[in-house]
Amino acid sequence: MFSHNKRLQYSVHVSESNPGLANLMLEQFGGPQGELAAAMRYFTQALAEEDPGRKDMLMDIATEELSHLEVIGSIVAMLNRGAKGELAEAVAETGELYRSLQGAGNDSHVTQILYGGGPALTNSGGIPWTAAYVDSIGDPTCDLRSNIAAEARAKIIYERLINVTDDPGVKDALGFLMTREIAHQLSFEKALYAIEPNFPPGKLPGKQEFAHVYVNTSQGEGDTRGPWNSDENFTFISDIDDFVAMDGGDGQAKVKLDSEDQACVKAFARRTASNAKSNPTTGAELGGR
């Protein structure tokens, strides 16, 4: 069960109303890298987790992400609070009210009109939150890697939000949330490496003759060698004859059909065959005359 504590995980102090900034903050409320997406990702993973330690960790972090959602939502609401009152009471002339809500070239007026200044489950572009943001696949080593990446992306969004505000209270709260993303990355990485072995993800080891082969398919100026394709770690191949039909076959796609299916396919091919010697006049040519 869950219970709600009315105190935020981190104190938030907003200096002044700023609906434009509030709109940007929605990226971490209802966006793909936001706190709701993170909470749902880890919560659903926790419910399916078989390892008691990872289950406990995922539930802890999922619940903390909900607390972060509350912090971000509170920031959005406070940044919108002045404009919310102005809109509700229509204290300004129509044109001036619209300009104040629109801010510095953003679409905050949309969230004001539709949601009355409250935090909407959308990203900063107004796109509604979707469960498609949750990319869990049910394998712990795969999901933990995805979680590490998700926390890294969220940290970058927080950095960018910090860079677009000069409100010291907002900066301070965002700095806390950004730092918690770092802590979660560390927990997820520790949990990943506590699984031995943890690579490759899943049960099947892969075909060993291809598992340590690097294929240099993008050739020309800029070709670079490093640990990602070094001779120490990989068999490096650049010759097209070596990486085409790597199974040793002819590289063709074939299917075995019974006689009835073969007859149908041949009939279809005859009916839809192109005349390579034709030169039909096209609509594009007629329109260009």
Brief overview, please?
By secondary structure, this protein is mainly alpha-helical. It contains twelve helices and two strands.
Can you offer a commentary on this structure?
The chain is mainly α and 289 residues long. The chain has helices spanning 19-25, 27-30, 35-48, 52-89, 94-102, 108-115, 140-163, 168-193, 208-211, 240-243, 259-271, 283-287; strands at 213-215, 235-237. Strands 1-2 form a two-stranded parallel sheet. α3 runs antiparallel to α7 and α7 runs antiparallel to α8 (168-193). The chain is extended. It starts with 18 loop residues before the first helix and ends with a helix. The model has no long low-confidence stretch (mean pLDDT 90).
Gyration radius, rounded? 28 Å
Q: Biggest β-sheet, characterized?
A: 2 strands, parallel
Low-confidence stretches: none
Provide mean pLDDT, rounded: 90
**Could you say which overall geometry the principal axes of the C-alpha atoms support?**
extended
β-sheet strand percentage: under 5%
Encode the helix/strand succession as letters: HHHHHHHHHEEHHH
Q: What is the β-strand count?
A: 2
Please, what is the oligomeric state? Answer: single chain
Write the layout of secondary structure elements.
Elements: H1 19-25, H2 27-30, H3 35-48, H4 52-89, H5 94-102, H6 108-115, H7 140-163, H8 168-193, H9 208-211, E1 213-215, E2 235-237, H10 240-243, H11 259-271, H12 283-287
Parallel strand pairs: 1-2
